[in-house]
Structures are given as structure tokens and as C-alpha cells.
Amino acid sequence: MREMRIRPARPVDAEGITSLLHASSAYQGRYSSILDGYEFTEDQVRDTVCFLAEDADGRLAGYYSLVPDPAELDLLLVADAEQGSGLGARLVRHMLEQARNLGLASVRVVSHPPAEGFYLRMGARRVGVVPPRPPKVDYERPELVWDLLVE
């Protein structure tokens, strides 16, 4: 894996995050409708725990957005060129560390269907299914949770 640094996102990063999301092959074809008109906003950066990964030249390679209350991984994405590099796992570990630091007992994620296996490998457990919400989302999405408190 190329050297990547993870840093807090700034409101000015919202446009780059939106561009990375729309360029992702994960949201093409059957899954493209969920992004119709979607824009990651400066308010989302301010209102969530949002971090991004960038390479040594400052190019955006991935990001995540954690909503603290109720605790939910809102978005996590790795650029197509970094798929399989371990960056996604690194971002999940970082997000879980941030969640623990906030004192969260668990983190929920409504998964993009092809990403479910990744989240399961990262320690999440499936707790249900979120039904379709046409017209943007005409497919079921897995609901998973990471339990953070160890008794």
C-alpha cells in the first residue's frame, strides 16, 4: 500500500468527497440511482466525525463519515485505484477507534450490498435488512453493527 495519511476532513473537502463518490465504480449500474443529485456537503463535514485518507501528494484516496448520535457509519469509500490495498480496513479501524474515544457502545451501518462481506470481515455482525426505498433505492440493504463495549 502506498503511504496514506488519515486526517480530519475540513468543510472545503466536501466537493472532493462528492467527486470521489460519484467516480466510484461501486455506484454504477444497478446502484447508480442512490447518487442521483447527491452531494456531500460542508455541513456534513462539520456535523459528523469525518476523516479522509490522502496520499503524499494530497490526493484524496478515501474517507468516512461517522454520525455520533445515533451512532452510524454514514459513508465509507475508497477510490477505485486503492481497492484491495488495505486502505478500507485502515479507515474502518480508524473509525472504530474514534467511536470508542467518543464512548459509543456500538456503530450501525446500512451497507451497500456488495460491501457487506467487507464489513463482516471487519468484525461487524448482521442484524437485519433495510427494505427498498424507491425510487432511489430499489434494493434491500444489509444492516450491520459493530459492538464496541467489551464486558
Automatic annotation (TrEMBL):
Pfam families: Acetyltransf_1. Keywords: Acyltransferase, Transferase. Residues 4-151 form the N-acetyltransferase domain. One of its GO terms (molecular function) is acyltransferase activity. InterPro entries: Acyl_CoA_acyltransferase, Bact_Acetyltransf, GNAT_dom. Its EC number is 2.3.-.-. This is GNAT family N-acetyltransferase.
